[in-house]
Write a structure and sequence with these properties.
The protein is built from 13 helices and 41 strands. With 817 residues, it is mostly beta strands. The protein has a 22-stranded antiparallel β-barrel. A six-stranded mixed beta sheet has the order 1-2-5-6-3-4. It has a three-stranded antiparallel beta sheet with strand order 11-18-17, covered by helices on one side. Belongs to the TonB-dependent receptor family.
């Protein structure tokens, strides 16, 4: 028997106890007699394999069993339920501007500051091109064994992006047999039908274990107006058109506009997507003490979003308009303005259909060698690529629309509908076509071990290349679309890294951990980070822990090389000059951006109070300087309205409220400070397993503005108290009941307050026999509606904070043979 095989045959009982205690838990320390014989395992947040599962850093583990019983069908849905998630992220209910992607936002510090790993190695950025975050849709749920969430800074271990924490997704390995799974769900309103199936097969092959799998899923759409809580939209862009704020009277003249357009009839509350994933893992001992691992994953995503027909705004030259249409716009002196704004909701073209087709590939090959002195070496190569094509159907060509208006004034100013054929023949409507992609290549090598004094160590090197591009439609680039103008993005960078880590047991109960890393970027130069932690065991069941660390985040391709792009943001015009709450802001990037810098500190206690009852409590604090961010446009507008001329210049507006050149530039002037407390309680008694997990936000300040306990359409939600309660009951060996409750404390907005919200979810799992299991349940049992957020980013709320889908029934079944 080889050394590696012998190690694998010694089961780590400590891990089993911790994971069996509850499906979702903070990792607990369990003292075991003879621990020196327990297999050393990898723990997220460290390069050193260890015998215990409790390091100085807090880690939450989510099991595949809990995922199945909860009816989760996406990684984003799983992570968004965590109390540590806050701020704004993208998901199935992000209809406006999501590009179909799904992201995670730990601590509310920004999706770009949470590092996503797959089996301890980086995932390629993925989405619709030049992305700075991972699209969680690319990771099929059926291949997941566990999800580990590291909730402190880890740049000294993993490098850039791990400022707020790390999400490490562990896939199924050493799998034997064949498992077929099918799932489906529908809301109690009869919409949002979703379903899918997966096939997983594992067998011994070529001296190792081969796992292959496939997953298909199809998520159905929900229309916003089909939810009672969604108020009718009130847009000044009306189907009949308006000139100078006046609408046609049907007799060749114009009268003041009194009606508005309800855009909720055409917009999605839940966006449809179709996913196909193929994946494989192969692990084999190619020599007595050398192991080969091969991973491959491919995901195809086809997704859609639908929004109301394009709101078109054209500034018309009044000298080219017929007098009978312009006479009433003359002032008391008979002077006609040089321009009049023509607005029209282009219902004749149809709703805007956003579509994405993305292909994401990832392949990783690794070699690990196990030496007789309890040390090991490893080498790996990882390649990732993401290609995308996205389109916007029924887009409007502003230049051709303006020409058509001059040539057919009676048609455009009549207030009557126009035919789709007429708009097509005039070149007014077209399909916008864009493409983009991301690429990543990583070479890594490391050496780690434990000496005779039980001092653990790890050293390694890494070389990484990242590139990305996004090419908008030529009409969009030229600014000829009625949508916002956008320039192309393209660029790349490389980084070479070296790191070291050590764990020293000063005494039997006191251990010190330290790590350092140096990264050299082709774009800005070098960045050094460090981490220092310690654990102190008072008794076998009581341990204190603390970690202090520095971190950084390198600017992404889009932040460095992104062209100017427009964004219609939900803002309040203090001058009341704008007719709509969506106001155009020009976003710009900067090739000279420097990395963000951070400092983090966590300190807490792990206490096994008695058999079956344990708790952890951790205080955490993160401070970011030189943050790559944009100024708060709303705040600068308000200050400019209050005669702060510096604020006016900062965003390119005038003291009189001319917002036509409003600009938000990326700079290194941002700052974030946040702190809070995480508390976890786990209790097991007989058939019952109970877990309570909560986060209390003490502070969240960005650029001098405090956001703790607040909510808004641009920032998302920063509830001061978020909690999850999980109660599992094994009624028999074959029947399990699961109840979960998700609590969100009320928040304050701009002139309004939201109430506390609790979502209740129930499910039951039944093992028909050893091979066949059926699970069914209800999400949002009491059909709790989202809180009203008047300045929300969609549906008069914030969809990534509150459930806008409603009560949903789900069922899944699996058969293994």
């Amino acid at each position: 028997m080889s050394l590696r095989t012998a190690r694998k045959n010694i089961v780590n009982r400590a891990v089993m106890i911790a994971l069996a205690a509850t499906s979702v838990t903070s990792v607990q320390a369990v003292a075991e007699e003879g621990a020196e014989e327990v297999e050393r395992i990898a723990v997220t947040g460290s390069r050193i394999n260890r015998t215990d599962i409790e390091s100085a850093s807090p880690v939450t583990v989510i099991s595949s069993d809990f995922i199945t019983k909860s009816g989760f069908t996406s990684v984003q849905e799983i992570l968004s339920m965590q109390p540590a998630a806050a701020g704004m992220s993208l998901g199935s209910t992000s209809n406006n501007g999501s590009g179909g992607s799904a992201t995670v936002n730990l601590r509310g510090m920004g999706v770009q500051r949470t590092l996503v790993l797959l089996n301890g190695r980086r995932m390629v950025a993925s989405g619709t091109g030049a992305d700075s975050s991972v699209d969680l849709n690319t990771i099929p749920v059926s291949m997941i064994q566990t999800i580990e969430i590291l909730k402190d800074g880890a740049s000294a271990v993993y490098g850039s992006d791990a400022i707020a924490g790390v999400v490490n997704i562990i896939t199924k390995k050493d799998f034997q047999g064949t498992e077929i799974t099918a799932d489906g769900s529908i809301t109690d309103k009869g919409d949002g039908e979703s379903g899918g199936f997966s096939l997983l097969h594992g067998r011994d092959f070529a001296g190792g274990n081969l796992v292959v799998g496939a997953q298909y899923s199809n998520r159905g759409e929900i229309i916003q107006s089909d939810r009672d809580f969604v108020p009718a939209g009130e847009s000044s862009f009306v189907p009949g058109g308006s000139l100078g704020g006046m609408v046609p009277d049907g007799e060749g003249g114009f009268v003041p506009r009194e009606e508005s357009y309800d855009y909720t009839d055409d917009s999605y509350a839940q966006t449809p997507n179709e996913l196909l994933s193929l994946f494989t893992n192969f692990n084999s001992e190619i020599a007595d003490d050398t192991e080969l691992s091969v991973e491959f994953m491919y995901t195809r995503r086809e997704s859609n979003q639908q929004m109301a027909p394009q709101p078109a705004s054209i500034d018309l030259d009044t000298s080219l308009l017929d007098d009978n249409y312009t006479d009433q716009f003359k002032d008391e002196n008979g002077v006609l303005p040089e321009e009049l704004e023509y607005r029209r909701r282009m219902t004749d073209a149809g709703p805007r259909i956003y579509g994405q087709e993305t292909d994401t590939y990832r392949a990783s090959v690794g070699l690990t060698g196990y030496l007789s002195n309890d040390s090991q070496w490893d080498m790996s190569a990882t390649y990732g690529r993401n290609d995308s094509k996205d389109s916007v159907g029924n887009s409007i060509h502003a230049g051709n629309m303006e020409k058509s208006i001059y040539n057919h004034q009676d048609d455009w100013f009549s207030g009557d509908p126009m035919s789709n054929d007429f708009l097509a023949s005039e070149g007014v409507m077209y399909t916008e076509q864009n493409e983009g992609g991301n690429e990543q290549f990583i070479l890594a090598a490391g050496y780690s071990g434990v000496n005779e004094h039980d001092i653990g160590y790890a050293v390694g090197v890494e070389s990484r290349f990242e590139s990305g591009y996004y090419t908008p439609d030529l009409i969009t680039q030229a600014g000829e679309s009625t949508a916002a103008q956008q320039d192309p993005t393209e660029g790349n960078y490389s980084v070479q890294s070296i790191y070291g880590e050590i764990s020293v047991p000063v005494t039997d109960s006191f251990t010190v951990e330290a790590a350092t890393r140096y990264d050299n970027y082709s774009t800005f130069g070098g960045a050094a980070t460090w981490k220092l932690g310690a654990t102190y065991s008072i008794t076998d069941g009581l341990m204190f822990r603390a970690v202090a660390a520095t971190g950084f985040r390198a600017p992404s391709v889009s932040e460095l090389y992104g062209g100017n792009s427009g964004s219609f943001d939900y803002l309040t015009d203090p001058w009341d000059n704008e007719q709509d709450s969506q106001i155009l802001v020009n976003y710009t990037s900067d090739a000279d951006l420097k990395p963000e810098e951070s400092e983090s500190f966590t300190a807490g206690v792990v206490w096994e109070i008695t058999e079956g009852l344990s708790t952890t409590m951790d205080y955490w604090q993160f401070d970011i300087t030189n943050a790559i961010s944009r100024v708060n446009v709303q705040n600068e507008m308000n200050k400019c309205f209050g005669d702060d001329l510096v604020a006016c210049d900062t965003i390119g507006i005038t003291p009189g409220g001319d917002l036509s050149e409003m600009t938000s530039t990326l700079t290194n002037i941002g700052q974030q400070n946040t702190s809070g407390i995480d508390w976890n309680v786990s209790y097991t008694a007989g058939m019952f397993k109970v877990m309570f997990d909560t986060t209390y936000l003490l502070e969240f300040e960005e650029d001098g503005i405090s956001y703790e306990g607040t909510i808004g359409g641009n920032m998302g939600g920063y509830s001061q108290l978020k909690s999850n309660l999980t109660v599992s009951a094994d009624l028999t060996e074959d029947v399990n009941l699961l109840y979960t409750a998700n609590y969100i404390q009320g928040m304050d907005g701009d002139g309004y307050t939201t109430d506390d919200v609790i979502y209740h979810n129930v499910s039951a799992a039944y093992h028909i026999n050893d091979a066949w299991q059926v699970t069914g349940g209800i999400k949002n049992l009491f059909d709790t509606e989202p809180e009203e957020v008047p300045d929300g980013n969609d549906m008069n709320t914030v969809p990534n904070i509150y459930d806008v889908v409603g009560r949903t029934f789900f069922v899944n079944t699996s058969y293994k043979f």
